[in-house]
Amino acid sequence: MKDAREPQDNFDEKEKNEGLTRRNFLAGAAATASAIAVGASSEAKAASSKASSKGSSGRPKTMLVKNASVLVTMDKTRREIKDGGMYIEDGVIKQVDTSDKLPKTAEMVIDMKGQLVLPGLVNTHQHLYQHLTRVAPACQDGNVWNWLRVLYPMWARMTPDSERLAVQVGLAELALSGCTTVFDQQYVFPNGCKIDDAIGVAQDMGIRFHASRGSMSLGQSKGGLPPDSCVENEKDILSDCQRVIDKYHDLKPGAMTRIVLAPCSPFSVTDDLMIESAKLARQHKCGLHTHLAESLDEERYCLKRYGLRPVAAMEKLGWLGNDVWFAHSVHVNDAEIAQYAKTGSGVAHCPSSNMRLASGMAPIKKMRDAGVKVGLGVDGSSSNDCSHMLAEARMAMLLARTLLSENEGGPPEAKKEWISARDCLEMATLGGAAILGRDDIGSLEPGKRADFFAVDTNQRSFAGGSMVDPVAALVFCAPQNASYTVIDGRVIVKDGQITTLDLPIAIEKLNKASRLVMNV
Ligand SMILES: [Zn+2]
Predict the structure, then answer these.
(1) Domain 3-120+449-506 class in CATH
(2) Could you give the CA distance from residue 42 to residue 39 in angstroms, rounded to a whole number?
(3) 3-state secondary structure string, 444-499?
(4) Secondary structure letter of residue 204 according to DSSP
(5) Which residue of 86, 269, 323, 390 is 20 to 30 Å from 120, comparing CA positions?
(6) Mean of the pLDDT values across residues 206-222?
(7) CA proximity to 132, closest of 182, 190, 178
(8) 100 CA distance to ligand 1 centroid (A)?
């Protein structure tokens, strides 16, 4: 059965040749996930061995999480419960309390002694396919537009097989960092690539996934930045958007898959595509997303093309509202922040990418104070070569403090002017859930889906700090991996290992695919 655990770069062919179905492979992984936990009953094992890889497979009927050193709820009063735990049924949290007040047993019992337990982290901006062009030598040192000009032709070499490998490794990396919900913006579809490939991988791995049918329609010949070979025509884009909405968009509570429409950026799409995408999204209650106010190049471009700054251009196109969120928003002024707050438009803050590409420092403290919804995003793996959500929370805290250093007279005395470690965890959980329009995740409370992760506090990096404030240590100290990640009541990471993918083999295959795409 060794081959059965291999992530396959050509699934259909492999199934035919080996008489081994992809479903069996994944059901086996799901069974492993279920059986490894302490107290997993034989019924649980039998049930999971029959289960398919999708939906609730591998999930015990009841789960008891107990003895957490601290359970961070992110509920309305931001309770942090010492010796905390949860009782879960069918992937939904039924009770959150101190361990002594919870039921004594369940089909699956996870003893979290020495662990911090938090709501699953929500990644609000990512381009998973960019795992194929990580650390590309020709654009290690350059701003956004220089970086894009190097990468567009490489991305044009991507295939469905290489895309799937990038998504597998990217999602594994995120799950290992405590991330349970991922918004992924794919906007190049060369060589038969479809968004279905990414969705299939996420479903098989058990990751809650908001997939964007992204797009680019304005090539160089029409005044855009991307080469014509990387863009599609509007008619094809919109009909594929309709297709994936019909096929995948699930508005039910607890949905594992939703569709977002996400034209790439002001300098790569036409006005018509922006307007029509918004119409279609609103017809089907899909989210709307694009990059905005990321760089000064983009600001100059918008001033030239529209005679307007980026936010005003979005307003003109009908792109402000509660269903819209923008990646970056580094270069926004106070009036634009007020406009975001007034319209309910959200921001995916991506501090590592903004530093990597020298884009600047987004004024997230001002945004939060004004009531703007702010979540965190790791951005693509080619502009933040570290897809680690806890690392991103740490970067958000540090970058906000760097911005404080620019205050006249130096950083302020008042604590309320500072972004705290807990503020960053809030952005990574509740903030992200609000941006994605979800009230069923983001906190650990009765009625919410059982999306959470645990980190062992007895690690070298926390020594001398975790005993005084383990929650803050999670952000202040070096980012650590999750020991457990549970999504919709299903164990995806156990003892620091991903259970729904053979990660070492996936990495080996991705490395080969990356060489082909980067042509190195
Ligand atoms: Zn991006």
Answers:
(1) mainly beta
(2) 9
(3) CCCCCECCEEEEECCCHHHCCCCCCCHHHHHHHCCCCCCCEEEECCEEEEECCEEC
(4) H
(5) 323
(6) 95
(7) 190
(8) 45
Q: Measuring CA to CA, how many Å separate 276 from each of 213, 251, 279?
A: 13, 21, 5
Task: With 0.85 as the threshold, say if the pTM is over it.
Answer: yes
Residue located via tokens 């019909």? 246
Ligand 1 center from residue 125 Cα (angstroms)? 6
pLDDT, averaged across the chain: 90
Condensed to tens digits (0 to 9), the pLDDT of residues 329-357 reads 999 999 999 999 999 999 999 999 999 99
Q: Are 287 and 323 in contact (CB under 8 A)?
A: yes
289 CA from centroid of ligand 1 (Å)? 10
> Residue 68: helix, strand or coil by DSSP?
strand
Predicted pLDDT of residue 56:
58
Q: What was the pLDDT predicted at 498?
A: 98
Give the separation between CA 487 and CA 328, rounded to whole angstroms: 27
Q: In angstroms, what is the span from residue 108 Cα to ligand 1's centroid?
A: 39
Say how far apart CA 123 and CA 16 lie, in whole Å. Answer: 36
Residues with Cβ within 5 Å of ion ligand 1?
379
Q: How far is CA 92 from the centre of its chain?
A: 21
CA–CA distance, 507 with 440 (Å, rounded to integer) = 33
CA dihedral 157, 161, 166, 169 (to 10 degrees): -160
Q: Could you tell me what percent of the chain has a pLDDT over 70?
A: 89
Q: For position 52, what pLDDT does the model report?
A: 35
Whether residue 12 has pLDDT greater than 70: no
Q: What's the rounded Cα separation, in Å, for the pair 346 and 324?
A: 6
Q: How far is the CA of 380 from the centre of ligand 1 (A)?
A: 6
| Rounded Cα–Cα distance for residues 311 and 266 (Å) | 10
Lookup result for tokens 């999971």: 48
Helices and strands per DSSP (H, E), number in the chain: 18, 17
CA 300, CA 360: separation in Å to the nearest integer?
A: 15
HSE-up of residue 239 (Cα within 13 Å, Cβ side):
4
Distance from C-alpha of 458 to C-alpha of 114, rounded to nearest angstrom: 7
pLDDT above 90 (res 361): yes
Query: How do the domains of the chain map onto residue ranges?
Result: 3-120+449-506
Tell me how crowded residue 434 is: count the other CB atoms within 10 A of its CB: 21
Binning the chain into helix, strand and coil, the percentages to the nearest 5 are 40, 20, 40
Q: Is 93 helix (H, G, I), strand (E, B) or coil?
A: strand
C-alpha 323 to ligand 1 mean position (Å): 18
